[in-house]
C-alpha cells in the first residue's frame, strides 16, 4: 500500500467517524427539540382545557422535561437561540397587532407606570438585600433584578384572550418599552459598579441616549417612510416577498441589541411599523405561523432553566418567596398608581400585567454571578422570584380580564 492509498484510507475512516459523530449530535439535538415541543404542546393544551393560561402550562412543561425532573431536555446554546427567536417572533406578532397611534394615546400613563414600576421594586429589592446583610453592590443587583418586566409573558396572555386592542393592554405594551430602556440603562450602570468601574455619568447618558434614540428613530422615521413609499411597495408586490418582512423584523431586533436594548423591543417596533400596511399585504398569517411554532419553545426553555435543587434550602425558599412578594407588590402598586386615571379595574390589570420578570431577571442574576458579586443563594432567590412572577401573573390576568365582546371592535 502506498502512502497515497494509506492517507486516502485514513481520511475515509476518520472522516466517516466525524460524520457519524456529527449525525449523532444532530440526532440528539432534534430529539431534545422534540421533547420540548411535545411537552409545550401538551402542557399548553392541558392548561387551556382547565381554563388557565396556556403559557403557564408551557413553562411547567419545560420544568418537567428539564434537568430538574426528567432530564430529557438540557439547556444548550441551540435551544436558547430558538427560545430567543421565539420571544422575538412573539413580540413581532404583538407589534403587528398594535397601532402606534393607539400607544400615543396612553403615552403619559405608560411613562408613569414604567417609572413607578421601576422605582418601587428597586427600592424594595435594595432594602431586602440590605436587611439580609449584603453590601450595597449586592443589594443594588437584587433591586435591578426586580426592575424590568418580561412583556413576552403578558403579551401572549393578552393575545390569547383577544384583548390587545384595549386601553390597558396598550398601556402595558407602552410601559414595557420604556421599562426596558430604563431597566437596561440601570443594569449597565450597576454592572459597571459591580466590575469596580465606579459610577459613570457619561456612560449612563450614552446608554440612555442610544436606547431612546433607537426607539425614536424607528418610530419617527419608519412609519412616515413606509407611508411615503407605500405606492412603490404595491408595484414591487412586497406582500409576496415574505423574506423582506422577516428581514425587517430580525434586522431591527439585531439593531436593538446593538443599541443596548432587548432584541424583542426591536421586533415589537418592527411589527408596529409594518402594521401600517398589514391589511394590504399577505404576511400576517405567515408571521403568526412561525410565532405559533417558536413561542412555546421560548416558554418551555424558561421553565427548563429552573433548578429545583437550589430551592431545597429553607432559608432560600423563605428568602425567594419574600423577594417574590416584593416583586409582585412593587409592580402592582406602580402600575396601579400610574394607570389609575383610566379607572380602578384597568389600573389593577396594568399592575398585574407588569409583574412577570421572565428572562430579564435571570440575565441580571447571571451578570452578577459572573462578576462574583452575587452568591449562589441570591441567585437561587432571584430564580424563585422569576418563576413565581412568571406563573402567578398569567393566572391573575386570566381571572381579572373579561372576555372581549363578540363581533365588536369597541375598546373596553
TrEMBL record:
Membrane topology: Multi-pass membrane protein
UniProt main location, coarse: membrane
Signal peptide positions (record): 1-20
Ranges that cross the membrane: 30-47, 54-75, 81-98, 110-131, 137-155, 167-193, 205-226, 289-310, 316-339, 360-376, 382-401
Subcellular localization(s) per the UniProt record: Membrane
GO CC annotation terms, alphabetical: membrane
Keyword Cell inner membrane assigned: no
InterPro entries, A to Z: Cation/H_exchanger_TM (IPR006153), Na+/solute_symporter_sf (IPR038770)
Domain of life per record: Bacteria
UniProt keyword list: Antiport, Ion transport, Membrane, Signal, Sodium, Sodium transport, Transmembrane, Transmembrane helix, Transport
A Pfam family per the record: Na_H_Exchanger
GO biological process, one term: proton transmembrane transport
Chain ranges of the Cation/H+ exchanger transmembrane domain: 38-401
Annotated GO MF terms: antiporter activity
Record PANTHER family: NAPA-TYPE SODIUM/HYDROGEN ANTIPORTER (PTHR43562), SODIUM ION_PROTON EXCHANGER (EUROFUNG) (PTHR43562:SF3)
UniProt protein name: Kef-type K+ transport system membrane component KefB
Organism name: Deinobacterium chartae
Amino acid at each position: 500500500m502506498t502512502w497515497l492509498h494509506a492517507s486516502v484510507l485514513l481520511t475515509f475512516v476518520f472522516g466517516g467517524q466525524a460524520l457519524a459523530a456529527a449525525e449523532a449530535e444532530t440526532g440528539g439535538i432534534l430529539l431534545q427539540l422534540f421533547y420540548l415541543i411535545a411537552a409545550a404542546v401538551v402542557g399548553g393544551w392541558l392548561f387551556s382545557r382547565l381554563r388557565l393560561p396556556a403559557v403557564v402550562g408551557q413553562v411547567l412543561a419545560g420544568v418537567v422535561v428539564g434537568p430538574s425532573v426528567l432530564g430529557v431536555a438540557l439547556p444548550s446554546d441551540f435551544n436558547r437561540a430558538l427560545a430567543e427567536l421565539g420571544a422575538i417572533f412573539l413580540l413581532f406578532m404583538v407589534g403587528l397587532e398594535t397601532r402606534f397611534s393607539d400607544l400615543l394615546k396612553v403615552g403619559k400613563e405608560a411613562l408613569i407606570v414604567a417609572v413607578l414600576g421601576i422605582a418601587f421594586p428597586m427600592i424594595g429589592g435594595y432594602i431586602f438585600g440590605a436587611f439580609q446583610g449584603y453590601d450595597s453592590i449586592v443589594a443594588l443587583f437584587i433591586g435591578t433584578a426586580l426592575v424590568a418586566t418580561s412583556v413576552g409573558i403578558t403579551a401572549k396572555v393578552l393575545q390569547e384572550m383577544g384583548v390587545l386592542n384595549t386601553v390597558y393592554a396598550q398601556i402595558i405594551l407602552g410601559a414595557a418599552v420604556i421599562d426596558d430602556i430604563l431597566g437596561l440603562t440601570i443594569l449597565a450602570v450597576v454592572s459597571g459598579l459591580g466590575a469596580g468601574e465606579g459610577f459613570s455619568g457619561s456612560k449612563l447618558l450614552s446608554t440612555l441616549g442610544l436606547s431612546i434614540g433607537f426607539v425614536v428613530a424607528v418610530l419617527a422615521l419608519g412609519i412616515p417612510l413606509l407611508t411615503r413609499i407605500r405606492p412603490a411597495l404595491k408595484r414591487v408586490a412586497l406582500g409576496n416577498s415574505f423574506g423582506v418582512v422577516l428581514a425587517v423584523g430580525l434586522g431591527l431586533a439585531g439593531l436593538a441589541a446593538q443599541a443596548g436594548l432587548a432584541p424583542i423591543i426591536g421586533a415589537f417596533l418592527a411589527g408596529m411599523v409594518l402594521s401600517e400596511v398589514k391589511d394590504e399585504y399577505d404576511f400576517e398569517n405567515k408571521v403568526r405561523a412561525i410565532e405559533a411554532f417558536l413561542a412555546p419553545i421560548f416558554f418551555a426553555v424558561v421553565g427548563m432553566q429552573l433548578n429545583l435543587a437550589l430551592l431545597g434550602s429553607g432559608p432560600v425558599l423563605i428568602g425567594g418567596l419574600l423577594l417574590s412578594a416584593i416583586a409582585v407588590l412593587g409592580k402592582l402598586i406602580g402600575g396601579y398608581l400610574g394607570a389609575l386615571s383610566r379607572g380602578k379595574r384597568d389600573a389593577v390589570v396594568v399592575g398585574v400585567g407588569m409583574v412577570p420578570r421572565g428572562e430579564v431577571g435571570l440575565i441580571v442574576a447571571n451578570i452578577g454571578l459572573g462578576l462574583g458579586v452575587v452568591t449562589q443563594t441570591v441567585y437561587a432567590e432571584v430564580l424563585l422570584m422569576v418563576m413565581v412572577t412568571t406563573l402567578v401573573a398569567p393566572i391573575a390576568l386570566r381571572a381579572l380580564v373579561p372576555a372581549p365582546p363578540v363581533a365588536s371592535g369597541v375598546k373596553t
